[in-house]
Amino acid sequence: xISTHILxxxxxxxxxxxxxxxxxxxxxxxxxxxTTNPDGRVSDFGIKEFTEGAYQLEFEIAPxxxxxxxxxxxxxVCIQFFIEDINQHYHIPLLISPFAYSTYxxx
Length: 107
What we know:
The protein is mostly beta strands. It has one helix at residues 62-67; strands at 2-8, 13-14, 19-24, 30-35, 41-42, 53-60, 76-83, 90-97, 100-103.
């Protein structure tokens, strides 16, 4: 399973209503699209089976900052990661602010 969440470190709050797209990284084939809930989370993209390989999450953060009337330097954040074990849970958090972002392998 793949999940994610977004924390706006500028405000210290979850980033709700952000569109997140999941792609196969090699082919850039769109697998699923989701929107973060009020807690800034996508707990499941609704995909039942994965294969080993490279994937990419694309976070459309420009509309989020625009709704707050804040300019951002990064309109979209793309994170590539590799699935080695299809039986594991892969959680990819994103920390954002108007002029920076970071990520890590979550649990």
